Amino acid sequence: MKNKLEKFSEFELLSLYALLIEELYERGLVRTTNNPVADYGEYVVAKKLKLELVRNSQKGYDAVDSKKKRYQIKARRHTERNKSTQLGVIRNIEKKPFDFLVAVMFSADFSIKEMWKMPIGIIKKYSRFSSHQNGHILSLKGKILEDSKTVKVI
User: Fold this and answer.
1) How far apart are CA 42 and CA 53, in angstroms?
2) Which residue ranges make up each domain of the chain?
């Protein structure tokens, strides 16, 4: 696909990106016009687990299930340039703003590589606190994936 895009100027590529994001928003695949990874992650997790997404302004969680359990959803996209498994900052764990964290890892083309569900109770054990970001940093690798309370959804 790269060769097909080389003929476009930088401005034309950015304009195309803006049109694509707007179309994804209109179709309900993303909830903002920001970077689509997080929004699309929320969409696919909600669809797969039959969750109801809450308002964007809701602090601490993104969706609820039929029993009103709260879910925070984190997404990461792997590319050739970035294979990091570090998720976005998780804030206020002590206040227990969610019941479960669901992490989805996308391939470069946005296909789902894996999806994991874990209770809030184990997040602090496997994450590190960053005072700079005022929250916990969790990487989706190693012992947290081996914990019996972590469930591989996909």
Assistant:
1) 8
2) 1-30, 34-152
The pTM of the full predicted model, rounded to 2 decimals, is: 0.87
Contact (CB, 8 A) for 138 and 123: yes
CB atoms within 10 A of CB 42: 26
Give the closest residue to 104 by CA, choosing from 38, 57, 150, 50: 38
Arithmetic mean of pLDDT, 4-24: 90
- What one-letter code names the amino acid at 97? P
CA–CA dist 79, 17 (Å, integer): 18
Q: pLDDT at position 1, please?
A: 54
Which fold does the domain 34-152 belong to in CATH?
Answer: Trna Endonuclease; Chain: A, domain 1 (3.40.1350)
Reply yes or no on whether the pLDDT at 64 is more than 90. Answer: yes
pLDDT above 70 covers a percentage of the chain that reads 99
Q: Which two tokens stand for residue 126?
A: 């496997």
